[in-house]
Structures are given as structure tokens and as C-alpha cells.
């Protein structure tokens, strides 16, 4: 008989990678007031390796766990951070090329990039309405973050971009909380963190035992 090795839960890794990278960038977009197109160089390493590579790996391991949503979400946002790293990396010459195009080419291009991710995030939000409160809040705040950053680029409004940065900070904190709720439990700590379920109460699983369902049919 073939035996398969049981994998650990990759979700805390993916959530932590997303949270830290989002936190650092959002801090500069919001509290420190730098526009989206001119992030600090420190974000580049995080976007490539922690938010990017580690999230992508978490997504691949979610495929092995037979979790389609987790695999799609983690892999997608891992791809987001890697593609963002390419955009801001001097070696790829993306931003200078957009700036050389003149006018509003740079802000329009970045806005379109963010709009696409806002649409994708809204799809993830709809797919989480029956999961738990933490995930619903995470994708709701993340979608607002993308929309505000998109609007900030298209309108060249520094204040709108700052608002997106602050929403990004809240998003990062929510992601960290969900990761902590998975990591901190009564098996390894003296307390656990609540994350209320939003599943329908009447949607109870049917247990099958000895060929009979719960109601004995």
C-alpha cells in the first residue's frame, strides 16, 4: 500500500509572508507618505523572496493539501509581489521606461496593474463569505487598499495613496492575526486566538460509518 507523507499547514507561512511585505510597503505609502511608484529599496528584497517566493511555495504546498482556494490565493499574491519587485527593480528598467514615455503613462500603467489586482481580490472576497471572519476582513481591506492605490495613481492624489497605505497596514495586521490564530493554540500555548466561523449552521458535515449516514439511512 502506498503511503503519503502528511504535510504541515502552509497557511501561516503564506499569511506571514504577505503580512510583513504588505506592512513594510504600506508603512511607506501611508505613514511615511511615499507614492506607490517610488518605494524604498528595502521593499525589493521582501517582494522577491518573502512576499514573493515564500508565498508561492505556500501556494504550491496548498495544492498538495487539496486546498484549491489557498493554492490559488497564495500563488497569486506571491506572483503579485514578484511582479511588483520586477516593476521597481532598477535592473528591469520598467519605471524609467514608463517615465520616458512622458505624460501620465507611468501613473496610468500602475493604475491598470492595481485595478487588475483589485478585481482579483474581489473574487477572492466572494469566495470567502462562508469561511471565517478573519479572511473576509482580510480580503475586504485588501480590495479597498488596491482600489485606493489605483485611484491615487490615476488622480495623482498623494492623500488617496496615503489612505491606501493606511488600509494596507490594517490588512497586514489582519493577515498576521490569522497566521497567529493558526500558530497559537492550546497544543503549544496557554491560550488560543478566536477567528469566528461564518459557515451556515445547518450545513453540518455528513459522517458516513459502516455504510450508513447520520440519520441511519
TrEMBL record:
Top-level taxon: Eukaryota
Membrane topology recorded in Swiss-Prot or TrEMBL: Multi-pass membrane protein
Subcellular location: Membrane
Stored InterPro entries: AceTr, Gpr1/Fun34/SatP-like, GPR1_FUN34_YAAH
Chain ranges passing through the membrane: 43-61, 68-88, 108-126, 133-154, 166-184
GO molecular function: acetate transmembrane transporter activity
GO cellular component, one term: plasma membrane
Keyword Metal-binding part of the UniProt annotation: no
Family per similarity comment: Belongs to the acetate uptake transporter (AceTr) (TC 2.A.96) family.
Pfam families found in the cross-reference section: Gpr1_Fun34_YaaH (PF01184)
Keyword vocabulary terms for this entry: Membrane, Transmembrane, Transmembrane helix
Name of the protein described by the UniProt record: Uncharacterized protein
Predominant localisation class: membrane
Organism the protein comes from: Coemansia reversa (strain ATCC 12441 / NRRL 1564)
Keyword Transmembrane: yes
Amino acid at each position: 500500500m502506498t503511503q503519503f507523507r502528511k504535510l504541515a499547514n502552509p497557511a501561516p507561512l503564506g499569511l506571514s509572508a504577505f503580512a510583513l511585505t504588505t506592512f513594510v510597503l504600506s508603512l511607506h505609502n501611508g505613514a511615511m507618505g511615499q507614492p506607490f511608484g517610488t518605494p524604498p529599496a528595502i521593499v525589493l528584497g521582501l517582494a522577491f523572496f518573502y512576499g514573493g517566493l515564500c508565498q508561492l511555495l505556500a501556494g504550491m504546498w496548498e495544492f498538495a493539501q487539496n486546498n484549491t482556494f489557498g493554492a490559488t490565493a497564495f500563488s497569486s499574491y506571491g506572483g503579485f509581489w514578484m511582479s511588483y519587485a520586477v516593476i521597481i527593480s532598477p535592473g528591469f528598467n520598467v519605471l524609467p521606461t514608463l517615465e520616458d514615455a512622458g505624460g501620465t503613462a507611468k501613473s496610468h500603467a500602475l493604475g491598470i496593474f492595481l485595478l487588475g489586482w483589485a478585481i482579483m481580490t474581489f473574487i477572492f472576497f466572494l469566495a470567502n463569505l462562508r469561511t471565517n471572519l478573519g479572511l473576509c476582513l482580510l480580503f475586504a481591506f485588501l480590495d479597498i487598499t488596491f482600489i485606493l492605490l489605483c485611484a491615487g495613481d490615476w488622480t495623482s492624489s498623494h492623500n488617496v495613496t496615503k489612505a491606501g497605505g493606511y488600509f494596507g497596514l490594517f490588512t497586514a495586521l489582519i493577515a498576521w492575526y490569522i497566521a497567529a490564530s493558526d500558530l497559537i493554540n492550546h497544543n503549544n500555548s496557554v491560550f488560543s486566538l478566536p477567528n469566528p466561523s461564518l459557515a451556515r449552521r445547518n450545513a453540518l458535515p455528513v459522517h458516513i460509518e459502516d455504510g450508513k449516514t447520520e440519520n441511519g439511512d
